[in-house]
Amino acid sequence: MRDTKESRLLLVLLIAIAFALITVDIRGGQNSPVDGARQAAAAVFGPIENGVSSAVSPVGNAVSAVRDSGERHDRLALLEKENAALKAKLGSKDRDRSRLHQLDKMLKLAGDGQYGIKGAQVIAIGAAQGFSWTITIDAGAGDGIRRDMTVLNGDGLVGRVTTVGPDTATVLLANDPDFTVGTRMEGSDELGFSSGQGDRALRVELLNGKAEVKKGDRLVTFGSQADKPFVPGVPVGTVSRVDPSGGGLTRTMYVRPFANFTQLDIVGVVVEAPKKDPRDEVLPAKPRPTPTPTVTVTVTPSAQANSGEESSGDTSATDDSATDDTATDEPTSDTTATDEQQ
Fold first, then answer.
1. Where do the DSSP E strands lie in 67-108?
2. Are residues 139 and 145 in contact, defined by beta-carbon separation less than 8 angstroms?
3. Model pTM?
4. Helix 35-113 crosses helix 5-28 at what angle (to 10 degrees)?
5. Coil, strand or helix: which one is 221?
6. How does pLDDT run across 45-70, given as a tens digit for each residue?
7. What is the CA radius of gyration of the chain?
8. How do residues 15-27 score in pLDDT, each as one tens digit?
9. Rounded-to-integer distance, Cα 35 and Cα 255, Å
10. How many CB atoms lie within 10 A of CB 176?
11. How far apart are CA 218 and CA 233, in angstroms?
12. Which residue, among 163, 178, 151, has the nearest Cα to 234 in the 3D structure?
Protein backbone atom coordinates (compact mmCIF):
# COMPACT_ATOMS: atom_id res chain seq x y z
CA MET A 1 0.00 0.00 0.00
CA ARG A 2 1.44 3.33 -1.05
CA ASP A 3 1.91 6.10 1.43
CA THR A 4 -0.59 8.62 0.08
CA LYS A 5 -2.82 11.30 1.55
CA GLU A 6 -5.87 9.06 1.21
CA SER A 7 -4.19 6.14 2.99
CA ARG A 8 -3.15 8.32 5.89
CA LEU A 9 -6.71 9.68 6.21
CA LEU A 10 -8.06 6.11 6.18
CA LEU A 11 -5.63 5.05 8.92
CA VAL A 12 -6.62 7.98 11.13
CA LEU A 13 -10.30 7.18 10.57
CA LEU A 14 -9.83 3.50 11.55
CA ILE A 15 -7.95 4.46 14.69
CA ALA A 16 -10.72 6.90 15.66
CA ILE A 17 -13.36 4.21 15.14
CA ALA A 18 -11.35 1.74 17.26
CA PHE A 19 -11.06 4.18 20.16
CA ALA A 20 -14.79 4.93 19.90
CA LEU A 21 -15.66 1.22 20.08
CA ILE A 22 -13.33 0.70 23.06
CA THR A 23 -14.95 3.66 24.87
CA VAL A 24 -18.47 2.38 24.24
CA ASP A 25 -17.45 -1.15 25.34
CA ILE A 26 -15.94 0.09 28.62
CA ARG A 27 -18.90 2.29 29.50
CA GLY A 28 -21.40 -0.42 28.67
CA GLY A 29 -19.84 -2.96 31.10
CA GLN A 30 -21.65 -6.30 31.04
CA ASN A 31 -24.39 -4.78 28.80
CA SER A 32 -21.95 -3.53 26.21
CA PRO A 33 -23.54 -3.07 22.79
CA VAL A 34 -20.50 -4.68 21.13
CA ASP A 35 -20.70 -7.84 23.23
CA GLY A 36 -22.58 -9.66 20.52
CA ALA A 37 -20.00 -8.70 17.96
CA ARG A 38 -17.25 -9.93 20.29
CA GLN A 39 -18.93 -13.33 20.71
CA ALA A 40 -19.40 -13.63 16.97
CA ALA A 41 -15.74 -12.83 16.41
CA ALA A 42 -14.77 -15.38 19.05
CA ALA A 43 -16.86 -18.03 17.30
CA VAL A 44 -15.22 -17.25 13.98
CA PHE A 45 -11.61 -16.72 15.00
CA GLY A 46 -11.49 -19.15 18.01
CA PRO A 47 -10.80 -22.34 16.00
CA ILE A 48 -8.18 -20.48 14.00
CA GLU A 49 -6.43 -19.35 17.20
CA ASN A 50 -6.48 -22.91 18.61
CA GLY A 51 -4.93 -24.27 15.43
CA VAL A 52 -2.22 -21.67 15.44
CA SER A 53 -1.59 -22.31 19.15
CA SER A 54 -1.28 -26.08 18.62
CA ALA A 55 1.17 -25.54 15.81
CA VAL A 56 3.25 -23.10 17.79
CA SER A 57 3.15 -24.98 21.16
CA PRO A 58 5.89 -27.54 20.31
CA VAL A 59 8.14 -24.70 19.30
CA GLY A 60 7.38 -22.90 22.55
CA ASN A 61 7.99 -26.05 24.57
CA ALA A 62 11.27 -26.59 22.77
CA VAL A 63 12.30 -23.05 23.54
CA SER A 64 11.37 -23.55 27.21
CA ALA A 65 13.27 -26.84 27.31
CA VAL A 66 16.35 -25.20 25.85
CA ARG A 67 16.02 -22.38 28.35
CA ASP A 68 15.69 -24.81 31.29
CA SER A 69 18.26 -27.37 30.06
CA GLY A 70 21.13 -25.53 31.66
CA GLU A 71 19.42 -25.52 35.04
CA ARG A 72 18.54 -29.23 34.75
CA HIS A 73 22.08 -30.11 33.73
CA ASP A 74 23.45 -28.27 36.76
CA ARG A 75 20.97 -30.06 39.03
CA LEU A 76 21.91 -33.46 37.53
CA ALA A 77 25.61 -32.72 37.92
CA LEU A 78 25.02 -31.77 41.56
CA LEU A 79 23.11 -35.01 42.23
CA GLU A 80 25.85 -37.09 40.57
CA LYS A 81 28.46 -35.33 42.67
CA GLU A 82 26.51 -35.96 45.87
CA ASN A 83 26.02 -39.61 44.88
CA ALA A 84 29.74 -40.07 44.24
CA ALA A 85 30.56 -38.45 47.58
CA LEU A 86 28.11 -40.76 49.35
CA LYS A 87 29.60 -43.85 47.67
CA ALA A 88 33.10 -42.72 48.61
CA LYS A 89 31.99 -42.19 52.19
CA LEU A 90 30.39 -45.62 52.39
CA GLY A 91 33.45 -47.19 50.75
CA SER A 92 35.78 -45.51 53.20
CA LYS A 93 33.69 -46.78 56.10
CA ASP A 94 33.89 -50.35 54.77
CA ARG A 95 37.63 -49.98 54.24
CA ASP A 96 38.12 -48.55 57.73
CA ARG A 97 36.06 -51.39 59.17
CA SER A 98 38.20 -53.94 57.30
CA ARG A 99 41.43 -52.32 58.48
CA LEU A 100 40.19 -52.22 62.06
CA HIS A 101 39.43 -55.94 61.85
CA GLN A 102 42.93 -56.66 60.47
CA LEU A 103 44.51 -54.54 63.19
CA ASP A 104 42.57 -56.32 65.93
CA LYS A 105 43.69 -59.72 64.64
CA MET A 106 47.31 -58.61 64.40
CA LEU A 107 47.33 -57.14 67.92
CA LYS A 108 45.84 -60.37 69.28
CA LEU A 109 48.52 -62.46 67.55
CA ALA A 110 51.25 -60.13 68.80
CA GLY A 111 49.81 -60.31 72.31
CA ASP A 112 49.70 -64.13 72.28
CA GLY A 113 53.32 -64.30 71.12
CA GLN A 114 54.53 -61.33 73.22
CA TYR A 115 55.96 -59.66 70.12
CA GLY A 116 56.72 -55.94 70.12
CA ILE A 117 55.49 -54.74 66.73
CA LYS A 118 55.41 -51.57 64.67
CA GLY A 119 52.26 -51.30 62.57
CA ALA A 120 52.54 -50.31 58.93
CA GLN A 121 50.46 -50.09 55.78
CA VAL A 122 51.28 -51.65 52.43
CA ILE A 123 51.70 -48.81 49.93
CA ALA A 124 53.16 -50.68 46.94
CA ILE A 125 53.50 -54.20 45.56
CA GLY A 126 56.56 -55.45 43.70
CA ALA A 127 59.55 -53.17 44.13
CA ALA A 128 62.26 -52.58 41.56
CA GLN A 129 64.12 -55.81 42.36
CA GLY A 130 62.89 -57.61 39.24
CA PHE A 131 60.23 -60.27 39.55
CA SER A 132 60.54 -60.83 43.30
CA TRP A 133 57.46 -61.12 45.49
CA THR A 134 57.87 -57.95 47.55
CA ILE A 135 55.82 -55.19 49.13
CA THR A 136 56.68 -51.68 50.27
CA ILE A 137 55.44 -50.43 53.65
CA ASP A 138 55.13 -46.88 54.96
CA ALA A 139 57.54 -47.39 57.89
CA GLY A 140 61.31 -47.02 57.75
CA ALA A 141 64.44 -46.26 59.70
CA GLY A 142 62.78 -43.30 61.38
CA ASP A 143 60.24 -45.72 62.89
CA GLY A 144 62.85 -48.14 64.23
CA ILE A 145 62.72 -50.54 61.29
CA ARG A 146 65.93 -52.42 60.56
CA ARG A 147 67.03 -54.97 57.99
CA ASP A 148 66.23 -58.66 58.70
CA MET A 149 63.20 -58.08 60.91
CA THR A 150 60.22 -60.44 60.88
CA VAL A 151 57.01 -59.16 59.28
CA LEU A 152 53.61 -60.63 60.15
CA ASN A 153 49.90 -59.82 60.07
CA GLY A 154 46.81 -61.11 61.84
CA ASP A 155 47.04 -64.47 60.03
CA GLY A 156 50.72 -65.33 60.37
CA LEU A 157 54.12 -64.95 58.72
CA VAL A 158 54.32 -62.39 55.88
CA GLY A 159 58.07 -62.09 55.24
CA ARG A 160 61.22 -60.28 56.30
CA VAL A 161 62.59 -56.77 55.82
CA THR A 162 65.29 -56.59 53.14
CA THR A 163 65.75 -52.88 52.38
CA VAL A 164 65.16 -49.91 54.68
CA GLY A 165 64.78 -46.25 53.72
CA PRO A 166 64.14 -43.22 55.91
CA ASP A 167 60.33 -43.54 55.69
CA THR A 168 59.70 -46.80 53.83
CA ALA A 169 60.94 -50.38 53.76
CA THR A 170 60.86 -53.32 51.36
CA VAL A 171 59.61 -56.71 52.57
CA LEU A 172 60.45 -60.00 50.83
CA LEU A 173 57.33 -62.18 51.04
CA ALA A 174 57.43 -65.74 52.33
CA ASN A 175 56.24 -67.14 48.99
CA ASP A 176 59.21 -65.72 47.07
CA PRO A 177 61.48 -68.45 45.59
CA ASP A 178 64.48 -66.85 47.33
CA PHE A 179 62.78 -66.93 50.73
CA THR A 180 63.72 -69.66 53.25
CA VAL A 181 62.66 -69.97 56.89
CA GLY A 182 63.18 -72.66 59.51
CA THR A 183 59.96 -74.33 60.64
CA ARG A 184 58.77 -76.57 63.46
CA MET A 185 55.80 -78.93 63.37
CA GLU A 186 53.07 -78.46 65.92
CA GLY A 187 53.12 -81.16 68.56
CA SER A 188 55.84 -83.38 67.08
CA ASP A 189 58.49 -80.60 66.95
CA GLU A 190 59.84 -81.98 63.66
CA LEU A 191 62.16 -79.39 62.10
CA GLY A 192 62.40 -78.36 58.46
CA PHE A 193 62.94 -75.54 56.01
CA SER A 194 60.17 -73.77 54.09
CA SER A 195 60.78 -72.21 50.66
CA GLY A 196 58.46 -70.08 48.55
CA GLN A 197 57.07 -71.13 45.17
CA GLY A 198 55.33 -67.98 44.01
CA ASP A 199 51.59 -68.44 43.72
CA ARG A 200 51.84 -72.14 44.67
CA ALA A 201 51.99 -73.77 48.09
CA LEU A 202 55.12 -73.45 50.22
CA ARG A 203 57.56 -76.35 49.91
CA VAL A 204 58.88 -77.73 53.20
CA GLU A 205 61.75 -80.20 53.56
CA LEU A 206 61.67 -82.03 56.90
CA LEU A 207 65.04 -83.08 58.29
CA ASN A 208 63.62 -86.43 59.40
CA GLY A 209 62.82 -88.54 56.34
CA LYS A 210 60.69 -90.91 58.45
CA ALA A 211 58.68 -88.25 60.22
CA GLU A 212 54.98 -88.98 60.68
CA VAL A 213 53.13 -86.17 58.91
CA LYS A 214 49.53 -85.92 57.75
CA LYS A 215 47.33 -83.44 55.96
CA GLY A 216 46.13 -80.70 58.30
CA ASP A 217 49.26 -80.56 60.47
CA ARG A 218 50.46 -77.01 61.18
CA LEU A 219 53.84 -75.30 61.31
CA VAL A 220 55.37 -72.29 63.05
CA THR A 221 58.71 -70.53 62.64
CA PHE A 222 61.61 -72.14 64.47
CA GLY A 223 63.43 -68.87 65.05
CA SER A 224 66.91 -67.59 64.24
CA GLN A 225 70.01 -66.81 66.23
CA ALA A 226 69.52 -63.47 68.00
CA ASP A 227 65.95 -63.54 66.58
CA LYS A 228 67.10 -62.25 63.17
CA PRO A 229 65.71 -62.54 60.65
CA PHE A 230 62.96 -64.62 62.28
CA VAL A 231 61.45 -64.74 65.72
CA PRO A 232 60.05 -68.10 66.94
CA GLY A 233 56.42 -69.19 67.09
CA VAL A 234 54.93 -67.23 64.17
CA PRO A 235 52.26 -69.32 62.36
CA VAL A 236 53.42 -70.39 58.89
CA GLY A 237 50.69 -72.60 57.41
CA THR A 238 48.86 -75.92 57.20
CA VAL A 239 50.06 -79.09 55.46
CA SER A 240 48.04 -79.67 52.29
CA ARG A 241 49.98 -82.57 50.74
CA VAL A 242 52.76 -84.95 51.75
CA ASP A 243 55.02 -86.76 49.30
CA PRO A 244 55.37 -90.50 49.91
CA SER A 245 58.38 -91.40 51.99
CA GLY A 246 61.06 -92.81 49.69
CA GLY A 247 63.54 -93.69 52.38
CA GLY A 248 65.57 -90.53 51.80
CA LEU A 249 67.22 -88.35 54.41
CA THR A 250 64.48 -85.71 54.15
CA ARG A 251 60.75 -85.70 53.53
CA THR A 252 58.91 -83.22 51.33
CA MET A 253 55.50 -81.73 52.03
CA TYR A 254 53.51 -78.75 50.78
CA VAL A 255 52.01 -76.13 53.04
CA ARG A 256 49.15 -73.70 52.46
CA PRO A 257 50.26 -70.44 54.15
CA PHE A 258 48.02 -68.73 56.69
CA ALA A 259 48.70 -65.28 55.19
CA ASN A 260 47.15 -64.33 51.85
CA PHE A 261 50.01 -62.65 49.98
CA THR A 262 47.70 -61.08 47.38
CA GLN A 263 45.51 -59.29 49.95
CA LEU A 264 47.97 -57.54 52.25
CA ASP A 265 47.06 -54.19 53.76
CA ILE A 266 47.95 -53.84 57.46
CA VAL A 267 51.16 -55.58 58.62
CA GLY A 268 53.40 -55.44 61.66
CA VAL A 269 57.20 -55.45 61.88
CA VAL A 270 58.54 -57.25 64.96
CA VAL A 271 60.87 -54.68 66.53
CA GLU A 272 61.13 -56.56 69.83
CA ALA A 273 61.43 -60.36 70.09
CA PRO A 274 59.59 -62.32 72.81
CA LYS A 275 61.47 -63.16 75.99
CA LYS A 276 60.63 -66.85 75.56
CA ASP A 277 59.61 -69.06 72.67
CA PRO A 278 55.79 -69.05 72.46
CA ARG A 279 55.95 -72.37 70.60
CA ASP A 280 52.38 -73.31 69.55
CA GLU A 281 50.50 -70.71 71.58
CA VAL A 282 50.09 -68.31 68.67
CA LEU A 283 48.43 -70.85 66.37
CA PRO A 284 44.69 -70.29 65.88
CA ALA A 285 42.23 -72.66 67.47
CA LYS A 286 41.64 -75.77 65.42
CA PRO A 287 38.23 -75.97 63.75
CA ARG A 288 35.83 -78.41 65.39
CA PRO A 289 34.98 -81.44 63.26
CA THR A 290 31.46 -81.42 61.85
CA PRO A 291 29.44 -84.29 63.34
CA THR A 292 28.22 -86.89 60.85
CA PRO A 293 24.44 -87.34 61.04
CA THR A 294 23.23 -90.89 61.78
CA VAL A 295 20.21 -92.12 59.84
CA THR A 296 18.01 -94.84 61.43
CA VAL A 297 15.75 -96.80 59.07
CA THR A 298 12.65 -98.47 60.53
CA VAL A 299 10.99 -101.20 58.41
CA THR A 300 7.19 -101.54 58.77
CA PRO A 301 5.81 -105.02 57.84
CA SER A 302 3.50 -104.93 54.85
CA ALA A 303 0.02 -106.47 54.64
CA GLN A 304 1.34 -109.21 52.35
CA ALA A 305 4.00 -110.12 54.87
CA ASN A 306 1.38 -110.34 57.62
CA SER A 307 -0.78 -112.62 55.43
CA GLY A 308 2.21 -114.85 54.86
CA GLU A 309 2.81 -115.11 58.59
CA GLU A 310 -0.82 -116.09 59.19
CA SER A 311 -0.63 -118.76 56.48
CA SER A 312 2.51 -120.11 58.08
CA GLY A 313 0.70 -120.32 61.37
CA ASP A 314 -2.16 -122.27 59.85
CA THR A 315 0.26 -124.75 58.32
CA SER A 316 1.84 -125.28 61.69
CA ALA A 317 -1.56 -125.90 63.16
CA THR A 318 -2.30 -128.46 60.46
CA ASP A 319 1.02 -130.15 61.07
CA ASP A 320 0.24 -130.31 64.77
CA SER A 321 -3.11 -131.91 64.02
CA ALA A 322 -1.43 -134.46 61.81
CA THR A 323 1.00 -135.22 64.58
CA ASP A 324 -1.85 -135.69 66.98
CA ASP A 325 -3.55 -138.15 64.58
CA THR A 326 -0.38 -140.15 64.31
CA ALA A 327 -0.16 -140.31 68.02
CA THR A 328 -3.77 -141.56 68.21
CA ASP A 329 -3.08 -144.34 65.69
CA GLU A 330 -0.33 -145.84 67.80
CA PRO A 331 -2.67 -147.24 70.49
CA THR A 332 -4.75 -148.85 67.75
CA SER A 333 -1.70 -150.80 66.61
CA ASP A 334 -1.17 -151.95 70.16
CA THR A 335 -4.73 -153.21 70.36
CA THR A 336 -4.29 -155.30 67.25
CA ALA A 337 -1.17 -156.83 68.67
CA THR A 338 -3.07 -157.83 71.81
CA ASP A 339 -5.74 -159.62 69.82
CA GLU A 340 -3.14 -161.64 67.99
CA GLN A 341 -1.63 -162.77 71.25
CA GLN A 342 -4.96 -163.92 72.46
1. none
2. yes
3. 0.60
4. 80
5. strand
6. 455 545 545 554 554 555 455 455 55
7. 51
8. 777 767 666 666 6
9. 104
10. 22
11. 11
12. 151
